[in-house]
Amino acid sequence: MELREHPLRADLVAELHARPPELLVAPLRISYLAMVSPSEQREQEWQHFCALLERFSVPRPKSLLSHASLNLGPFRVKFERHSEFARYIFIAPPNRAEPFSDLALSLIPPDWLAAVPGEVIAATHVEVRRESPVPGDTEAVVTRAFGGAPLVGADVGGGAGRALTHFEVGADGFSRLLVFDRNLTPRQCGRMVQRLLEMDTYRMMALLALPIARELAPFLTDCEQELARVTALLPTATSRDENSLLDRLTRLEASIENRIANNEFRFGASAAYSELVARRIAELREGRIQGLATFQEFNDRRLAPAMATCQTMVRRQESLSERVARANQLLATRVDITREEQNQALLASMDRRASVQLRLQQTVEGLSIAAFTYYVVGLIGYAAKAIKASGYHVEPEIVMGLSVPFVIAVAAIGIHRIRLMVERAARSH
């Protein structure tokens, strides 16, 4: 084909087939680790995984992969990198008849295991067994595996298998999961075990938001009380109080927005993980075992209230942010109105000053005309006296008196034209 492919097509197709379940055939033992680590450690995780391959003389993959499944001889290892955590699954055949007496983790070099990057968020030992047709054998195996601990379990895969656990962390830091294979196909068994392990991991990742929600509750209470105090002062606040109240509201809003920015991702991720847990439970196709809580019931009783608490905190902080924003906007509007009134008063004052200045200017213009007339008439008088002294019959007083109206008219016209020229120049700029 000469059709042009989208550059991301190969990557997207690979993503659809990423992290396939292992083909599992009972009996076998599995040790599972989920390690929380930042994305910056992805290269370090991959190099550490490849170091395990080299210890068992297995060639490392040519490039960094988000998932890999390899046979190391004594056991099979599967590595998966997710956005927030990495998973390691070690699969080995059983050596002893007693459940959980010989763990797959015992085959891993202790120094390599101690140096795995990240922090443990989920750790589980899994044992997959064929269900015995002998009555009472299954119950005896369960008793030896868990003692008298309260169990959670169900028939899975429409009755093709059975899964039991107590969700408790033992002294070694691992919980235990026992799966009985009745007539599961290898692929179906792999999917069931993967779903059960993913449920445990996603449940823990979802619960990471619960401590944040508990810490957030008193902070939101303090903020709500501060908002109530500020809003109670708004109706009686004077213009002198408004700036102080606006500063308090601005600081409060900034503090809330900072908390939202810091925990928004965690709450969003928690909701997504919780939804994944619900989907994995639905995919198990549970059947009730008499006397035991199902995985769905355990999830509804344990995880659902925690997620409801987180969602309540999310809605509460969003509601508080909106209320503070409204109060801030209301107060800002009041401040704007106060400033507008002050501006109007200032403009009115400026208008009064301009009116006074105009009257003063008109008075000055009148005085200027009088002064100009006085000096010009005086000059005319001196000129008339000079003419009289030259022998001409001229009365200086009469000449000065007759010149006064003409001088006044010329002075008034001249000053008026000068004022018009100045006003036109001012308007042009």
What does this structure look like?
The protein is of the alpha+beta class and 429 residues long. The protein folds into 3 domains: 18-185, no CATH class; 209-344; 354-428. Helix content is 60%, strand content 13%. It is built from 9 helices and 8 strands. It has helices at residues 9-16, 42-55, 110-114, 137-146, 186-207, 209-233, 239-284, 295-389, 396-428; strands at 28-36, 67-71, 76-81, 85-92, 119-130, 152-156, 161-165, 175-181. The protein has an 8-stranded mixed sheet with strand order 2-3-4-1-5-8-7-6, with helices on both faces. Helix 6 packs antiparallel against helix 7, helix 7 (239-284) packs antiparallel against helix 8 (295-389) and helix 8 packs antiparallel against helix 9 (396-428). 25% of the residues are buried. The model has no long low-confidence stretch (mean pLDDT 87).
How are the SSEs ordered, and which strands pair?
Layout: H1 9-16, E1 28-36, H2 42-55, E2 67-71, E3 76-81, E4 85-92, H3 110-114, E5 119-130, H4 137-146, E6 152-156, E7 161-165, E8 175-181, H5 186-207, H6 209-233, H7 239-284, H8 295-389, H9 396-428
Parallel strand pairs: 5-8
Antiparallel strand pairs: 1-4, 1-5, 2-3, 3-4, 6-7, 7-8
Distance between the termini: 72 Å
Anisotropy-based shape: elongated
Helical residues, percent: 55-70%
The strand line-up of the biggest sheet is 2-3-4-1-5-8-7-6
| Percentage of residues in strands | 5-15%
Number of domains: 3
The radius of gyration is 46 Å
What are the segments in which pLDDT stays under 50 over at least 5 consecutive residues?
none
Q: Class by helix and strand content? A: alpha+beta
**Averaged pLDDT, please?**
87
Order of helices and strands: HEHEEEHEHEEEHHHHH
> How many beta-strand elements?
8
